């Protein structure tokens, strides 16, 4: 049984890598970011607005995090999400915890490629989103998102292709 968490910053490539892992490992994959986006749509808010809403309404984050915990407890899954590794860590769930990051410019370029827009505007959106998440998670769970010490593998994706990162992760799992 394989249980993996894939966490990372916006635009780091975590979704692409998680999808490749799903194909290669033939196990279930859940993207918590998509759940969050669906909730934002349901509330008729942009991601930015919904993030602000969550800062003032912790119930949304707590519900999402409870779902993540339930998913991880079942195992045999790739769970992708900002807090997925932390949830596994704080609840002593046996999982290989992966953190993927990249420099701000690379991440903004990837988001523009995927969603269009202006590089400078995307950089500002990333910075605001990360600040919002850092505040919420510190306040709700006393988690410092910049602390990477809980992860089994930390990968800088700035100069790596998704397939290369996937192979690094699979090598780690097979050790």
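^ structure tokens above, recovered residues below v
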């Amino acid at each position: 049984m394989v249980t993996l968490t894939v966490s990372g910053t916006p635009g780091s490539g975590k979704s692409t890598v998680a999808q490749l892992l799903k194909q290669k490992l033939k196990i279930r994959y859940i993207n918590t970011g998509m759940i969050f986006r669906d909730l934002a749509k349901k509330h008729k808010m942009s991601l930015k607005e919904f993030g602000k809403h969550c800062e003032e309404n912790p119930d949304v984050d707590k519900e999402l995090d409870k779902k993540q915990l339930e998913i991880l407890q079942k195992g045999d899954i790739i769970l992708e999400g900002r807090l997925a590794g932390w949830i596994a860590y704080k609840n002593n769930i046996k999982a290989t915890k992966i953190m993927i990051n990249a420099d701000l410019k690379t991440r903004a370029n990837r988001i523009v490629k995927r969603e269009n827009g202006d590089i400078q505007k995307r950089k500002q959106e990333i910075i605001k989103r990360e600040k919002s998440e850092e505040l919420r998670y510190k306040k709700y769970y006393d988690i410092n998102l910049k602390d990477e010490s809980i992860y089994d593998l930390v990968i800088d994706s700035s100069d790596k292709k998704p397939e290369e990162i996937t192979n690094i992760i699979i090598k780690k799992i097979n050790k």
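The radius of gyration is 15 Å.
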